[in-house]
Design a protein that fits this description.
Keywords: NADP, Oxidoreductase. This protein is of the alpha/beta class. The protein has a single domain, classed as Rossmann fold (3-Layer(aba) Sandwich), CATH 3.40.50.720. 45% of the residues lie in helices and 16% in strands. The chain has ten helices and seven strands. It has helices spanning 16-27, 39-49, 63-80, 109-130, 132-135, 156-159, 165-185, 203-206, 210-218, 229-241, and strands at residues 6-11, 31-36, 53-57, 83-89, 147-152, 190-197, 248-252. The protein has a seven-stranded parallel beta sheet with strand order 3-2-1-4-5-6-7, sandwiched between helices. The longest helix is centred in the middle third of the chain and has 22 residues, at 109-130. The chain is globular, with a radius of gyration of 18 Å. The chain starts with 5 loop residues before the first strand and ends in a 10-residue tail after the last strand. The structure holds nicotinamide-adenine-dinucleotide. Nicotinamide-adenine-dinucleotide (NAD) binds at residues 11-12, 14-18, 36-38, 58-61, 90-93, 118-119, 122, 152, 154, 197, 199-200, 202-205. Nicotinamide-adenine-dinucleotide is lined by residues 11-12, 14-18, 36-38, 58-61, 90-93, 118-119, 122, 152, 154, 197, 199-200, 202-205.
Length: 262
């Protein structure tokens, strides 16, 4: 699919990997609908991108909040006469915690729910609510494509570290749902692809302690550095444009495999 003149909903689209994706799609001529909690960054990004960018203050763990953002984007579809090309579900959080701590207290359920609600529930709900506006697109190209869904898992989907049970569960679930999602949607000409990055520069990783960061950099193979958000966005663009990418999880990690602890 060519991104030009199509609208993409991008959750977490005003920071890190989501923002780099928004910039790449926008510079390829797409319209970007940015869904994020952070209204200040939202206003800045819309000012930076100018035309063809809209921000909706959204909490992806709140189904009504997603509904309002999808409704606003659908109104934009009507105003512009463009169609929705797809979703990039980038909103995500990490909240480390051992399943049982030194004082024999189990991890709080609220902490597990917080992560699952944003990373898993929020991803599925955004896709679920946007789909009726994609299945009704006029099919395009020789294959009759209608749209593409791109999700973000993590290396933690495969080798979660100590303290990552909730995060790994959320990202493993996103990886697992990719194939059935593609299978459900194949009859509509809609693809589903998940990208699983290792360590990438972003606001999420900026707050890591020096020990954790150096530990991760030490186990990197090549290149021995964190990925740049633009390198992530390049793979998103390939996922949008390459129709043979479907129902799969693509690791983007420079061969890094996370050890149990750092
Ligand atoms: N950066 C990495 O090293 C890395 C590695 C693997 C996976 N990931 C995943 O990539 C995705 C993007 O992360 P990032 O590194 O760009 O982090 P980031 O913190 O820079 O961006 C995440 C964005 O999500 C938004 N967000 C958080 N909770 C939200 C909610 N409830 N509703 C709406 N928006 C919300 C934040 O406001 C922020 O703008 C996440 O899913 C993360 O788990 C990141």
């Amino acid at each position: 699919m060519k991104p030009q003149d199509r609208i993409f909903l991008i959750s977490g689209g005003v920071s890190g990997l989501g923002l780099a994706t928004a910039r790449s799609l926008h510079s390829a001529g797409a319209y970007v609908s940015l869904l994020d909690l952070n209204a200040d960054s939202g206003a800045e990004v819309v000012q930076e991108l100018g035309e063809r960018a809209k921000f909706f203050e959204t909490d992806v763990s709140d189904t009504d909040s997603i509904a309002a953002a999808v409704e606003g984007t659908v109104a934009w579809v009507k105003d512009t006469g463009k169609s929705i090309g797809g979703v990039v579900a980038g909103a995500g959080v990490g909240l480390p915690g051992l399943i049982i701590d030194k004082s024999n207290t189990p991890l709080a359920l609220s902490s597990i729910d917080f992560v699952l609600n944003i990373n898993l529930h929020g991803t599925l709900d955004l896709i679920r609510q946007t789909l009726p506006s994609i299945t009704t697109n006029t099919p395009s190209g020789p294959d009759g494509e209608r749209g593409v869904l791109i999700m973000i898992a993590s290396s933690a989907a495969f080798e979660g570290q100590m303290g990552q049970v909730a995060y790994a569960a959320s990202k493993g679930a996103v990886a697992s749902l990719t194939l059935p999602l593609a299978r459900d949607l194949s009859k509509y000409g809609i693809r589903a692809v998940t990208i699983a990055p290792s360590l990438f520069e972003s606001n999420m990783t900026k707050v890591m302690g020096a020990k954790v960061r150096q530990g991760l950099e030490r186990v990197m193979e090549f290149p021995k550095r964190a990925g740049q958000p633009e390198e992530f966005a390049r793979l998103v663009m390939e996922c949008v444009e390459n129709q043979m990418l479907n129902g799969t999880v693509l690791r983007l990690d420079g061969a890094m495999r996370m050890p149990s602890k750092l």
